[in-house]
Specification:
Number of domains of chain C: 1
Structural class of chain A: alpha/beta
Number of strands of chain A: 11
Largest sheet of chain A: 6 strands, mixed
Radius of gyration of chain C: 17 Å
Number of helices of chain A: 14
CATH superfamily of chain C: P-loop containing nucleotide triphosphate hydrolases
CATH class of chain C: Alpha Beta
Distance between the termini of chain A: 51 Å
Structural class of chain C: alpha/beta
Strand content of chain C: 15-25%
Largest sheet of chain C: 5 strands, parallel
Distance between the termini of chain C: 31 Å
CATH architecture of the largest domain in chain A: 3-Layer(aba) Sandwich
Order of helices and strands of chain A: HHEHEHEHEEEEHHHHEHEEHHHEH
Largest interface: A-B, 79 and 71 residues
CATH superfamily of the largest domain in chain A: Periplasmic binding protein-like II
Number of strands of chain C: 9
Chains: A alpha/beta, B mainly alpha, C alpha/beta
Order of helices and strands of chain C: EEEHEEEHHHEHEHE
Shape of chain A: globular
Number of domains of chain A: 2
Helix content of chain C: 25-40%
Number of helices of chain C: 6
Strand content of chain A: 5-15%
Oligomer: heterotrimer
Chain lengths: 405, 562, 217
């Protein structure tokens, strides 16, 4: 038996060990393209949204045609699974030939991977050919992911902004701030809820409240300490303590994920939902998941915004192919298609004004969906707090509300 | 003989080695030992972390309570139904209705149930339509209720077909017909007569299946994710959450949680065994009293009603899945969609084709391998000095009695270390671990029920044991062999966690796609993928039944047999 | 159901005809008086067991039957098996392996006898009656064929049946035992005044029974 195991490991490890991976330098793009040709890239990305899956399939098809890179979309239900997998591989000593080549990621997960050395060590994303169009000046979150420096370890893919939506047939005047929302919840018991943390949309809502309710938001840019957390998070938990008895199901159950919450809005169980994509409501209306009476709104003082990225794990088996795909995802062509609400509706990370006339035209041609706010209606972007706040909030949430008596 | 010996040995290594390795990979980190993560000092810190998790005792009670309740209730319903109606027209009709439901995967049944009973579900829509009182879904905690009632219900409606099938397979070995007449001639009502004369032998036959149901129910993940409570969730779901946390330290917590899960499952088994004793004692006291319990019609009717209801729930759920998959806008409280659209199905083929292929490959290969291994092991046993079910093959059932979640992640670490995860063979191997025991379980009874005198007669003609196996025993057992293969196929199709964890997502199956898509919450997609997920195993059973019917087309006795 | 049909004691099979798939399987009209044994003989497949099933209330759905079964003046034709009051003895003793010998008898003992002590005494007496004193705590698996047959007989009798039906009850016993058990069964039936319906293919059974004989087929 032992001999058999040894044989298996020799066969598999031997064949997977490919030397010279660290030499890969995106500044020598032709070499990257040459190496990428014929590679099979396993792209681990959330697979809960057919529109996004379709878009990824289109992008995969395109890079296969143009560069001979085969991209396989590994549909995951939670990105944390992927990090756990890479972590396990590191723990098991699998430093080459890993099972993940590219992962859709940001924020807390990026911070964790960066901190634990699970990402490809050498900066690569900033050296990609299409990085020159990235709007670093006006979109600071492309370089600071939840306050953590990106350092070229992940390639910007799209912009996210927290946007609320509501059914105009059931609600005429949506609340315009966290405190107005609290009043509305008190007046309309059972008509609001949020996905259960640590699901990231649920956690995002908690962070929105934190940022909006804290006296001085500067403290949130620093790693949280016991003292700073106790002080800064107090208004958040006061808000939740007051709201929970009046939530959907009296706060005894929560939708498991974003999809669950959107479904509740569609079924008329709740009146307000939210997404991390300004075009989500329009896209959902287009696909029949939400009634066409749904419209979007934001809080007056702004809502959280961030950037989502793709990253290459330290032990990726097809790093060159992963770079080629990441670069294509940043291309004006791919970005414009992605922003089309009929495709996905995810805002671009590019500085459109710097593009060629031809590429600018792609963006100008886009028509916003009926429930999508125009860029000037989206309100200010509130920056994400340091990731250390997230685990503290989630932990405290679980302690206070995770066990309903 | 010597070559035949390889089958039980291969079966042993294929099954026990992964489980043992997986358990080691969980026990060591649970006690703080995982040098590659920089910890090698033995400690109980991880257990302290688990114990400090908010609501842990509730999670444990949920796992324990829903597992025990689901097992006890489904066994009770099946027993009362078989006792009350065996040999009747009602029995034949309900058996035909319930048996195919075995092929419905747990997750599909759970989604169907949620579509049925949720406040925005079909029943409330009907109620709203009939009374005109509800404009919006009532704010009631039905699905994901804190006591896990919806989850338990979801488990019950799925375990009833399984236990019914196991019971039907075991009945021929209990001389049920004669016993039933004997009990009736002594003046016993059907149910109590069955309990005194048939149940003791019958339960001995299906006990392993019952215990497997108990282990499964106390550690179930997919049904719990769909129907179970969240504040807090049952233990297995929480372990999964810890396992998938991006924080390194949580891996130790998860490992300790997995050990705790084993403890909870063992506790459930102990409680069950005590319950068996108590029930046996009550039966003996009842026997001493001579209580005839002739007036059991109400109980019989209740049993048939619950049986029919459980089938109706699953079938209605499937219909709702189908309805949603073609629904256009469908607002509450409309009982039916405004319009119908096939766009969900039209969009399917591209993304689902590969998953369909993987499902077929994995399920087909693991079912065939499992049947070959099981037949080889059984034949080895049959030719050994002491033929008969015995305990010798008992160890092969071990994977049924270990909670999945307890050894999968340990196995992932091992496979990752060997660079073996993500390989098709690895996924196939782990499927085999789960498929084989069910195949053996379903094949074993008919195998030993076969009258060896057929073999003796052929041997007396001077033919070899191989001739007996290939030309006599196998053809005569064609139907149970095909049924076992179909069962193995169905088990493989429904495997979620093992496929995901060991396959590194590289072998997406219909089931893993269904769960990934379900996280988007679109009921149309959930309906379509869950239906697809149910379709494959159903086809498996249908093909098995057709082939068996073809093989025995001119053989009346073989149709009646097993 | 009519109770005035006949006040006569005994088991009456009135104009019984049984069909299988449209063809007549058997016809019979007979009266078995208390203590009398009616022997039904014939080769395999002529419907001996079907007759027992009809009288006992177990007839399968494939069969169609006409005629009445009247036991001690009660028309039991339409009653479920457990209310007919007819005890059955099979080829095998069918003792329950999970109970002791005494437990097997307790299962049979009529519930009309109440109270632990009274019931235990009834079982002890029944065992003594067939020469199995002190067997109450034995595992039925340790009994010889003849002992098991006797226990099965007493289990049936303890239920206080009004008639007995015997389905080839001695065919599994070897010749010496067969004689002994047969005598015991008929003696006991006579003692309790039970009408007996015996199905067999062994002429010696019929001879020992000493009652009327019906040949089927």
């Amino acid at each position: 038996m032992r001999a058999l195991l040894a044989l298996i490991s020799v066969l598999l490890l031997g064949s997977l060990a490919q030397a010279g991976d660290e030499r890969l330098d995106p500044r020598n793009w032709d070499a990257v393209l040459a190496e990428a040709k014929g590679e099979k890239v396993f792209f681990h990305a959330w697979g809960g949204e057919p529109r996004i899956n379709d878009y990824i399939a289109w992008a995969a098809e395109t890079v296969k045609e143009r560069y001979g890179v085969r991209v396989v979309h590994v549909k995951v239900s939670d990105t944390a699974q992927v990090i756990s997998r890479v972590l396990t591989e590191k723990a098991a000593g699998r430093h080459e030939g890993g099972t993940v080549d590219l992962v859709w990621i940001n924020g807390e997960n990026f911070a964790a991977m960066k901190h634990q050395g699970l990402l490809r060590a050498a900066p690569w994303s900033t050296e990609l050919p299409n990085y020159r169009f990235i709007d670093v000046e006006n979109k600071p979150s492309v370089a600071l992911d939840f306050t953590v420096p990106v350092d070229g370890l992940e390639a910007p893919w799209g912009m996210a902004k927290l946007v609320f939506f509501y059914d105009t047939e059931r609600l005429s005047e949506p609340p315009a701030s966290a405190s107005q929302l609290a009043t509305w919840i008190a007046d309309n018991p059972g008509r609001f809820t949020y996905p259960q943390p640590p699901h990231f949309i649920g956690t995002t809502f908690l962070k929105q409240l934190l940022v909006e309710l804290v006296a001085d938001s500067d403290v949130l840019m620093e790693p949280a300490t016991d003292e700073s957390f106790a002080a800064a998070a107090a208004p958040l938990f006061d808000w939740l303590d007051a709201a929970h008895p009046k939530l959907w199901r009296k706060g005894r159950a929560f939708p498991r994920d974003y999809g669950g919450m959107r479904r509740l809005l569609a079924d008329g169980e709740i009146d307000i939902a939210f997404a991390f994509n300004p075009a989500d409501a329009s896209s959902a209306i287009a696909s029949g998941e939400l009634p066409d009476s749904v419209r979007s709104f934001v809080f007056e003082d702004g809502t959280l915004g961030n950037t989502h990225f793709v990253a290459i794990p330290f032990n990726a088996n097809a790093a060159a192919g992963a770079m080629v795909f990441a670069d294509f995802l940043m291309s004006p062509e791919a970005q414009a298609k992605k922003q089309d609400p009929h495709v996905w509706g995810d805002p671009t990370v590019l500085a459109v004004e710097r593009l060629s006339a031809e590429d600018r035209a792609r963006f100008d041609a886009l028509v916003l969906g009926i429930a999508t706010l125009a860029p000037d209606e989206l309100g200010p972007i509130l920056p994400e707090p340091h990731p250390s706040w997230v685990s503290r909030i989630e932990h405290e949430w679980a302690r206070r509300y995770g066990v309903v008596q | 003989m010597s070559a035949l010996r390889l089958f039980p040995i291969a079966a042993f290594f294929v099954l026990i080695a992964p489980v043992a390795a997986g358990l080691a990979g969980v026990f060591l980190p649970a006690f703080g030992y995982l040098p590659v993560l920089g910890r090698s000092a033995l400690s109980l810190d991880a257990f302290a972390d688990v114990m400090a998790m908010p609501g842990l005792s509730r999670s444990i009670l949920l796992s324990l309570g829903s597992g025990l309740a689901a097992t006890a209730i489904s066994l009770l319903v099946v027993t009362l139904f078989v006792a009350g109606w065996r040999g009747t027209r009602v029995f034949a009709a309900l058996e035909r209705l319930v048996s195919p439901l075995l092929s419905v995967p747990h997750a599909a049944a759970a989604f169907g149930l949620a579509f049925l009973i949720a406040p925005s579900g079909f029943l409330f829509r009907l109620g709203a339509e009939a009374t005109g009182l509800l404009e919006r879904p009532p704010d009631l905690l039905i699905v994901n209720d804190r006591l896990g009632i919806a989850m338990t219900l979801g488990l019950i409606v799925k375990e009833i077909p399984f236990l019914l099938l196991m019971t039907l397979a075991a009945l021929p070995q209990t001389r049920a017909g004669e016993m039933e007449r004997m009990a009736a001639s002594l003046g016993y009502g059907r149910i109590v007569g069955f309990v005194h004369t048939i149940l003791p032998a019958l339960y001995g036959q299906i006990r392993l299946a019952v215990l497997a149901v108990l282990v499964f129910s106390t550690s179930v993940v997919d049904v719990a994710l769909i129907l179970g409570p969240t504040t807090p969730a049952p233990l297995a779901v929480r372990i999964l959450t810890w396992q998938q946390d991006a924080d390194l330290a949580m891996h130790f917590t998860a490992a300790a949680g997995a050990v705790l899960q084993i403890g909870v499952t063992i506790l459930a088994l102990v409680i069950w065994l005590i319950g068996e004793r108590l029930f046996g004692f009550v039966c003996r006291v009842m026997a001493l009293s001579g209580w005839r319990a002739r007036a059991d019609m109400a109980m019989r009717q209740l049993a048939a009603f619950v049986m029919a209801l459980s089938a109706a729930i699953v079938l209605a759920g499937l219909c709702l899945l189908a309805l949603w998959s073609v629904a256009g806008p469908w607002r509450f409280p409309d009982p039916l969609p405004d319009s119908f659209s096939f766009s969900t199905w039209m969009r399917m083929p591209g993304s689902i084709a590969a998953a369909f292929g993987h499902s077929l490959m994995l399920a087909g290969a693991s079912a065939i391998l499992a049947v070959v291994l099981a037949l080889g092991s059984l034949e080895f046993r049959a030719r050994s000095g002491r033929p008969g079910p015995g305990r010798a093959l008992g160890v092969l059932y071990v994977p049924l009695l270990v909670p999945q979640i307890a050894f999968l992640f340990g196995l992932q670490i091992l496979f990752s270390y060997l660079g073996f995860d993500g390989a098709f063979l690895a996924v196939l191997l782990v499927h085999l671990v789960f498929v084989f025991p069910y195949v053996l379980l379903s094949l074993s009874d008919p195998w030993w029920a076969w009258d060896p005198r057929y073999g003796h007669a052929v041997r007396a003609l001077g033919r070899s044991p191989n001739v007996v196996f290939w030309r006599v025993r196998l053809p005569m057992l064609a139907r149970p062999v095909l049924t076992a293969a179909a069962l193995g196929f169905a088990v493989s199709i429904a495997l979620y966690l093992p496929t995901l964890v060991i396959g590194a997502g590289r072998w997406p199956t219909v089931t893993t796609e269904a769960v990934a898509l379900a996280s988007g919450g679109d009921p149309r997609l959930i309906g379509a993928t869950a239906l697809l997920q149910a379709l494959l195993p159903f086809l498996g059973f249908a093909i098995a039944a057709l082939v068996a019917a073809f093989l025995s087309r001119n053989r009346r006795l073989m149709r009646a047999g097993a | 159901m009519s109770t005035t049909d006949s006040a006569e004691r005994g088991l009456i099979l009135r104009d019984v005809t049984i069909w299988l798939n449209g063809g007549t399987l058997l016809s019979l009209d007979a009266t078995v008086r208390p203590g009398e044994v009616l022997t039904v003989m014939g080769p395999s497949g002529v419907g001996k067991s079907t007759l027992l099933a009809f009288v006992g209330g177990f007839l399968g759905r494939d069969f169609r039957a006409e005629g009445r079964v009247i036991l001690n003046g009660r028309d039991i034709t339409a009653l479920p098996p457990d209310r007919r009051g007819i005890g059955l003895l099979f080829q095998d003793a069918l003792l329950l392996p999970h109970l002791s010998v005494g437990g097997n008898l307790m299962i049979g003992l009529s519930p009309d006898i109440k109270g632990g002590a009274a019931r235990r005494q009834a079982v002890t007496a029944a065992l003594a009656e067939v020469g199995l004193d002190a067997f109450a705590d034995r595992d039925p698996a340790t009994l010889s064929g003849g002992q098991a047959a006797r226990v099965a007989l007493m289990r049936t009798l303890l239920a206080r049946p009004e008639a007995l039906m015997l389905d080839e009850p001695f065919s599994r016993l070897d010749a010496a035992l067969r004689e002994q058990v047969r005598r015991l069964v008929f003696e006991e039936a006579a003692k309790y005044g039970l009408p007996v319906l015996l199905v067999t293919h062994d002429p010696a059974d019929a001879e020992a029974a000493g009652g009327p004989i019906v040949e089927l087929g």
